[in-house]
Amino acid sequence: MDERKHVVIIGAGVGGTATAARLARQGFRVTVIEKNGFSGGRCSTLRHDGFRFDQGPSLYLMPKVFEEAFADLDERIGDHVDLLRCENNYRLHFPDGDTIELSSDLCRMQQVMDRIEGPGGMDRFLGFLQEAQVHHARGTPIAIERNFERIWDLVRYGSEIGRLHLLDTIYRRASRYFKTKKMRMAFTFQTMYMGMSPYDAPAVYSLLQYTECVEGIWYPRGGFHQVVHRLEQIAQEKFGASFVYNVPVAKINTQGRRVTGVTLADGEVIQADAVVCNADLVYAYHQLLPPCAWTTQSLAAKQLTCSSISFYWSMSRTIPALDVHNVFLAEAYQASFDEIFCQHRLPSQPSFYVHVPSRLDPSAAPPNKDAVVVLVPIGHMHKDPVDYDRLVQRARSTVLDVLHRRLGLEADWIEHEIVNDPRTWQAKFNLWKGSILGLSHHLFQVLWFRPSTKDASGRYDNLYFVGASTHPGTGVPIVLAGSKLTSDQVCRGFGQVPLPRKNPSRPPSLRPPLRPLWILLVLGFLGFLCSLTDQHLPLSFSRRQ
């Protein structure tokens, strides 16, 4: 009889697969249950007649996080994944027809800054990059590599709020350095990786621009899913984890303060000593767990990220004017974000992203043809009925019109089309209201305020979460970092010592411990800010409500 502790993981997304591998490495018996017939979740692959498309993520950022995930399994990522570096990070297309290329080459960036920003432009760019480096160096060990289980964990880093510009937005900070609207757009659109507007996203997330400029943007040969596939192989073949596909979970079984396992859609019950949920967190609390006040009040009130209409086009020819990563920016830049996040609709003039994997990896398309992915941000599903078929046609017409005017692309070059819209994201991946990146990342939905890697409702002692809506947040590298936090927490829950962190980021040196008066002032300030956003700062300083 197998006496190992049994952990059931719901969902074989990036977070679920990485957590399975890490826990199996620690000696747990791990069973991963996935509703679809493939792993990766949004980080999966679509194929058609020799064409390959990344269904979701396409930018390989923060490579050290990926390296650590494989190192925790006593592996080198280079032995499993062939990484290709993009020569240009992006090709940006502005509304006036101008184009620029962003890269990690400072000499080329000097030319871009001189042309767009004029005298002193390069110095201002380096100033922006220096600030982003501070956000990266100080923000990573605080916000990504540690948990925030108690309010005191947040208070401890109260002195960092100013340095990380948590109370400012990316667009306002960028405007301090760049004089032109073009450069402000060029270094703020990246907030869409988190499904947020640059006019709302905390400025600390300029750490994304830093890692792009310094570490570059990479792409795994064979598609982004290769990362998940290799983690799954290691988990199964090296550590004995079990993956079960095409089996939806109907509910998480509970008894008192513990979860006892899961019930599958066909009625089968699987017992477990602990459950890790990699399904969408909001969906899980609403559909898989018994209702409670925290779910219907606190969680239901949290803001979601946007959705998207994504087109996957098999092209009859190559489109040389398109690079690997292309962004077409709207003239009404701020208004387009307001339409997405305030009015929850398709912008009248959307900015959109175009990914051409075959430009870097020829295996993504047949010879002399291109695989093209177009992502058009749109508001998540709302209470009002929406004719998504009409919106898909409108988005398609808008994108094709822009691509025709700018690049000469013709609609009849599209041999085949696959479309994902908010309905697809919800049905295929159980994403609440079709929100493709989970809960938003504004100030009161990060760190201690974000749902914890351990049951945020405070009801169950052996229920854990990993994924976009859980701390530390969304995006493949951030979710991978979260899998480390979750697996460590599971280990501690069973009295095991977690694996030591490989090459941890150097934590920022803190000022002397806060005196009681300063603690009261910080708590009072947090309480005041909470009152402005209808959040609650419980007097018990506990997540349980």
From TrEMBL:
Span of domain Amine oxidase: 16-484
Stored Pfam families: Amino_oxidase
Cofactor: NAD(+)
UniProt pathway annotation: Carotenoid biosynthesis
Protein's GO biological process: carotenoid biosynthetic process
Entry keyword set: Carotenoid biosynthesis, Oxidoreductase
InterPro entries per record: Amino_oxidase (IPR002937), Carotenoid/retinoid_OxRdtase (IPR014105), FAD/NAD-bd_sf (IPR036188), Phytoene_DH_bac_CS (IPR008150)
Molecular-function annotations in GO: phytoene dehydrogenase activity
Keyword Oxidoreductase: yes
Family: Belongs to the carotenoid/retinoid oxidoreductase family.
The protein's name in its UniProt record: Phytoene desaturase
Naturally occurring in which organism (per UniProt): Rhizopus delemar
